[in-house]
Amino acid sequence: MIGLGKHLFALVIFSFALSAAPQGKTKNVFLITTDGLRWQEVFSGAEEQLMTKTNGGVLNTNALRRDFLRDTPEARRKALLPFFWSEISSKGQIFGNQQKGSVARVTNGRFFSYPGYSEFLTGVVDPNIKSNDKRPNPNTNVFEWLNLKPAYKGKVAAVVNWDVIPWILNAERSKLPVWSGFPLPKGAPERIKISPALDQLIQNTTPLWDMMMLDTFTHQAAMDYVKSAKPRALYIAYGETDEWAHESRYDLYLRSAYNVDRYIKSLWEMVQAMPEYRDQTTFIITTDHGRGVGKSAWKNHGAEIAEAEFIWLAVIGPDTAPLGERSQCGVVTQSQVAATIAALLGEDFCAAVPQAARPIADVLKKSK
Ligand SMILES: [Zn+2]
Q1: Distance 108 CA to ligand 1 centre (A)
Q2: 322 — alpha (psi -120 to 50), left (phi > 0) or beta?
Q3: Rounded-to-integer distance, Cα 36 and Cα 98, Å
């Protein structure tokens, strides 16, 4: 009997070790991305040689230099991303500063948007994803997978800029509720409702692009949705940073990055003031690809631009040790984001999708 008891005990321990990561304090996860923001700006702030009319299409160089140019990389990045370099750097972790021995990278080899969004949402690299065309993604994303679990059913959503993302999320199959300023795939659930005033404001605003809108609107839709629906897992996608870079407007690229930092700050402060979220919510913040380096290549990205492989990734929440800006640490990959989102919630995405990359252990509560 004693022997059998020991075996049973060992079995219990063994099966616990095999099950999902131990549940920490995180009950809610927000994934927040901004399209094509370089690691160079995240860690070193504005790049002086691009703050000109010739290289960066800057209209008012004096104003831009006043707002973002400082003497050191630390001061420049803090001017550009004050929330990152105060709250997140003191309470969370930021990966990707290659000058300090931390590398965050894309593994799909394509370095443009659809493959990148698919990589961090599904945890896998699909070699058949070769374009930004609106094709339904055959791969299961972590939000869709969470939404199938009773604990999360109806508490998972996405609020996104860029018109292709609902196809990357395969809203038709996944049935994830989505807000986008553009039409959704046929068969997707009805678009998340926003306030009539916001809808009116969007419709009354002159459109700048045909597949992206100002992040202002996406952000307001996200804030309103969090307040009213209180999702447990939410994906928010900002997009202006990539558009302004392609348009060769370094001034507006910087100003939209600055705004994303403010948006994240306002989301963080809002959730910390809500009992459903306070001290039990983790934010993961990253991007879909890097960009080129130099006077002209900064505008672009893609397989032909090797530097676009490199990205950055930040995490802040109650289960992530406050190691701040990471240095001399292991490589983290874009594909690890999906399983990390699940693991923060105590769920094991890799058990369901074995080919998905493993979670980033450094940002998870250490098991006892
Ligand atoms: Zn782009």
Answers
A1: 15
A2: beta
A3: 17
Ligand 1 midpoint to CA 36 (Å): 6
Give residue 152 CA to ligand 1 midpoint distance, Å. 32
**Does residue 4 form part of some domain?**
no
Q: Is residue 305 part of a domain?
A: yes
Q: What are phi and psi of 261, to 5 degrees?
A: -60, -40
Task: Give 27 Cα–ligand 1 centroid separation in angstroms.
Answer: 33
Q: What is the pLDDT of residues 80-90, one digit of tens each?
A: 999 999 999 99
Q: Is 9 buried (19+), middle (13-18) or exposed (0-12) by CB count in 10 A?
A: exposed
32's enclosing H/E stretch is: strand 28-34
Q: Can you give the pTM of this predicted structure?
A: 0.94
pLDDT of residue 10: 46
Number of domains in the chain: 1
Instruction: Residue 324: give its domain's CATH number.
Output: 3.40.720.10
Sign of CA dihedral 293, 296, 298, 303: negative
Residue 354, in any domain of the structure: yes
Q: Is residue 50 part of a domain?
A: yes
Q: What spacing in Å lies between the alpha carbon of 301 and ligand 1's midpoint?
A: 6
Residue 126 is part of which domain span? 24-363
Model confidence pLDDT, tens digit, residues 236-286: 999 999 999 999 999 999 999 999 999 999 999 999 999 999 999 999 999
Span 139-172, pLDDT tens digits: 999 999 999 999 999 999 999 999 999 999 999 9
